[in-house]
Amino acid sequence: MPHTVRTYDHDPRAHERGVAYGEEAAHALGVAPDRVFKTLVADVDGTLTVAVVPVDARLDLKALAAAAGGKRAAMADPAAAERATGYVVGGISPLGQRKRLATVVDDSALGHGTVLVSAGRRGVQVELAPQDLVRLTSARTAPIARH
């Protein structure tokens, strides 16, 4: 499956200054923010669920709950997200997680030839076709982002 690993020099102070990890990646790599997707972990009715949304958007928790077949969603505790995925916050990848979690990718991803997601470390992204991302993560697609 074609993909490209893209790296940049992560600035640990950027997050302290209020720059989100995904925004830092988009800027450093010179990629439009709507093509760089962040990986968020939410609790949907007691089950950890992964949401993959553009870095320039917010996760719509109600839409995520509906897409996942649940009633309520809230952001997961960061420590629980790290334990379940095996990655640190800011570097959580939707790929290769320690425990396979249900995943929902925002349907806007399908409008791009390729998208970028974290490759599992801050400063490392993987660029791949959105259809490959959906297939590799066994994800559903749904409109879960608010712009």
Spatial ordering of strands, largest sheet: 5-2-3-6-9
Residue share in helix: 25-40%
Strand-pairing-aware structural class:
alpha+beta
Proportion of strand residues = 25-35%
Please count the helical segments.
Answer: 5
What Rg do the Cα atoms give?
14 Å
> What number is the mean pLDDT?
94
Protein topology:
Elements: E1 3-7, H1 12-16, H2 21-29, E2 37-44, E3 47-54, E4 58-59, H3 61-67, E5 73-75, H4 78-85, E6 102-106, E7 115-121, E8 124-128, H5 130-137, E9 140-142, E10 145-146
Parallel strand pairs: 3-6, 6-9
Antiparallel strand pairs: 1-8, 2-3, 2-5, 4-10, 7-8
What does this entry look like structurally?
With 147 residues, the protein is of the alpha+beta class. Helix content is 25%, strand content 33%. It contains five helices and ten strands, in the order βααβββαβαβββαββ. The protein has helices at residues 12-16, 21-29, 61-67, 78-85, 130-137; strands at residues 3-7, 37-44, 47-54, 58-59, 73-75, 102-106, 115-121, 124-128, 140-142, 145-146. The strands form three sheets. It has a five-stranded mixed sheet with strand order 5-2-3-6-9. Strands 1-8-7 form a three-stranded antiparallel sheet. The protein is globular, with a radius of gyration of 14 Å. The N and C termini lie far apart (30 Å). 41% of the residues are buried. The model has no long low-confidence stretch (mean pLDDT 94).
